[in-house]
Amino acid sequence: MIPLVKTGGSPREIGHDVGAAMREPICAAIAATREDCPSRQAWDARVDAASAYVKATE
What we know:
Layout: H1 11-36, H2 40-50, H3 54-57
């Protein structure tokens, strides 16, 4: 389930609120993903794959 974060204001304020509310779950997801990677090369490949979503997110 995706958590609902109530926020408002400027895009910067909204981004801050979402980041603050989701900090722990995001850090936990990153840690779990790193644990699942057998090597630095595997981690780098996942980061590269995720970079395709940066433009859409922006």
